[in-house]
Specification:
alpha+beta, 2 domains, 5-stranded mixed β-sheet, 4-stranded antiparallel β-sheet, 14 helices, about 45% helix
């Protein structure tokens, strides 16, 4: 009988750890990292052996020759090859439950610090990486540095890492989480059944802070009531444009975030100087790194600077996430919860351009695209926040076909499509200058179906759009900080 999947949400509580608790938790994270890396070593050997197996290579070659053939005989043969490859994979111990059995031997060594359920979760995480290599686009299964292991979790709340009697309990470790008197949300959330627990550590200053994450059954307590109504959302790499009957929003994602690039670069230079001073034999006379298979020596100054860099990036990422949560609440509570938008492939936007572009002076222009902007503003996470919040209400985001809908190219007054340049941030519609992203959000609001824009609705709602548009632009003109991609200089003329 298959397990039933119920909705769940996460409640995070800071743990009141003593110095001895922190030492014990650090020890357990170290042991878990050792178990993970030993399993990765085993998995990499098994993958290498499977790839070198002559039978496996012959079957892979035959399956490749049959790709694209849809006749019944080819389909049957491909299915038969798939079964044979699966048997070969199992013969080399490459399955989730075989990983569970393998790590069970390691768990005996660390039985006082790592329980069996946590060990199985470590094995499951490694198996997902192996699955990516076997079936998707993963290139290799990587070892994990100790500082990159930031969470450990159990499988149930019955044993192992568990929350009982208002405390975290794990193999003799008992820690009280913080719960403020006025935190109504947390107290309401704790009435739900605990599915399982997770211990998460975050870099703060020059040390770790430990948190308890409770995965609870059901939907979270309501903080805000969502508004009914349609919303057009035009997503960018660093900004969001919103239109509804209630108004317009054109904003950068997390505009008040702190620019950490200079401080991060300073810490990275400090780390590089320290690394070169403690590992002089790892560098060639011209300053390049030698290819030597030997661990790097890391001084105390290096570790301290590295930890500060990690804490700096974590703090900045948390601020951006918090601002995106607030923006999502504004959209859903003040504008509407029936969101219409175009799907964006953010991974594709991160890739380098294939075209060799030249500047006006004939120099080669960088082929890099929007990777840095996506890393700083995280627009994909903002979309995920909206989807998560809507799922609690049983709703989803509606997506149009971006190749047929073409909101950025349409003019509802003429009914024609014209592809704009990337640098054109405004356009003239019916004799009026409008901001391009806001107009695209307006056209998404006027969707008739996933491929067609309702031109009659555009004509009826255009005066409302112009009113909200002008109010939004006037508000942005008064700000000291606004993205150049908004095209505000065109409205200042």
């Amino acid at each position: 009988m298959a397990k039933t999947k119920t909705p769940s949400f996460v409640l995070t509580l800071k743990l009141n750890t003593s110095p001895s608790d922190e030492r014990e938790l650090a020890r357990r994270f170290y042991n878990a990292n050792q178990m993970h890396n030993k399993l990765v070593k085993h998995a990499r050997k098994a993958l290498s052996s499977l790839r070198q197996d002559k039978a496996c290579r012959a079957l892979m070659k035959e399956r490749s020759s049959l790709s694209g053939k849809n006749d019944p005989a080819s389909k049957r043969r491909r299915a038969d090859i798939g079964r044979q490859l699966s048997e070969l994979r199992l013969g080399y111990g490459l399955s989730e439950y075989q990983f569970h059995a393998w790590i069970k031997v390691q768990a005996h060594r660390y039985a006082r610090t790592i329980d069996s359920h946590t060990a199985q979760k470590i094995a499951t995480g490694t198996w997902r990486a192996v699955e990516s290599v076997l079936y998707r686009k993963g290139k290799s299964v990587r070892f994990k540095k100790l500082e990159d292991l930031t969470s450990l979790e159990g499988k149930t709340n019955a044993s192992g890492i568990r929350f009982s009697g208002g405390r975290l309990r794990w193999l003799g470790l008992v820690i009280q989480p913080q719960l403020r008197k006025g935190d109504v949300y947390a107290r309401q959330a704790l009435r739900h059944r605990v599915k399982y627990c997770r211990i998460k550590r975050m870099a703060v200053g020059s040390s770790w802070d430990y948190y308890l994450q409770l995965v609870l059954e059901g939907t979270p307590p309501k903080k805000h009531a969502f508004r009914d109504g349609f919303v057009g959302l035009d997503q960018g790499t660093s900004s969001e444009a919103v239109f509804s009957e209630e108004g317009c929003i054109l904003t950068e994602l997390a505009p008040e975030r702190r620019d950490i690039s200079r401080e991060a670069a300073r810490l990275q230079r400090k780390m590089d100087r320290s690394r070169r001073a403690t590992n002089p034999d790892r560098y060639a006379p011209d300053g390049t790194v030698k290819r030597i298979r030997r661990p790097w020596k890391r001084s105390g100054a290096y570790r301290k600077a590295h930890f500060r860099l990690k804490a700096l990036r974590r703090r900045n990422a948390d601020f951006v996430r918090q601002e995106e949560e607030r923006l999502a609440n504004v959209v859903l509570t003040k504008h509407g919860s029936d969101i219409i938008t175009e799907p964006l492939d953010y991974r594709a936007l991160q890739r380098r351009s294939r075209q060799d572009r030249l500047t006006k002076t004939g120099r080669h222009r960088s082929k890099k695209r929007f990777g840095a902007s996506l890393a700083v503003h995280a627009p994909g996470r903002f979309r995920g926040i909206l989807e998560r919040k809507l799922s609690y209400e049983g709703k989803t985001i509606s997506y149009v076909d971006q190749w047929k809908y073409r909101a950025s190219q349409y003019d509802h007054t003429t009914g024609e499509y014209a592809k704009p340049r990337l640098g054109d941030r405004t356009k003239t519609i019916g004799g009026r200058l409008v901001q391009r992203d806001l107009y695209s959000a307006f056209l998404l609001y006027c969707a008739k179906d996933t491929v067609t824009i309702d031109r009659a609705l555009c004509e009826a709602m255009f005066p409302v759009f112009l009113k909200h548009h002008d109010s939004c632009i006037a508000g942005l003109m008064g700000l000291n900080r606004a993205l150049s991609s908004f095209g505000l200089k065109d409205f200042a003329v």
